[in-house]
Amino acid sequence: TNETGMSSCVVSTRLRLFAKKKASGTHLSTGWFTMILATEMCDHTRVYGMVSHEYCKKPDAKPTLYHYYKGSAWQESWQECSVYNDMEGKKKAAHRFLREKRAFQRWSKYHDITFRFPTWQPTV
Fold it and tell me: pTM for the full model?
């Protein structure tokens, strides 16, 4: 851990990802930074409202609004899986939500993370 309290692993990951941001046209979500903060500060992290990266492939995936707040009519028509899949294919100004979820699954091997509502078990 360095003087700011962040592990060298977290710092190097952030630096690599930011260096690739311009080339990849993507940017990290607030969920990404929240997970970094939670796993660095807490012994156990409970995550609510995050589906697994496999969820949208399921035929019984429930349609869920992308944002938890009410906005304009077009925002309220966004379905979570549609947004995730669309973002994966965008060339710029995109989040890679499904890739982030796969990363969180891998992090659960090293951090005590529980995923709730929906509940899912990481397969690491």
Answer: 0.73
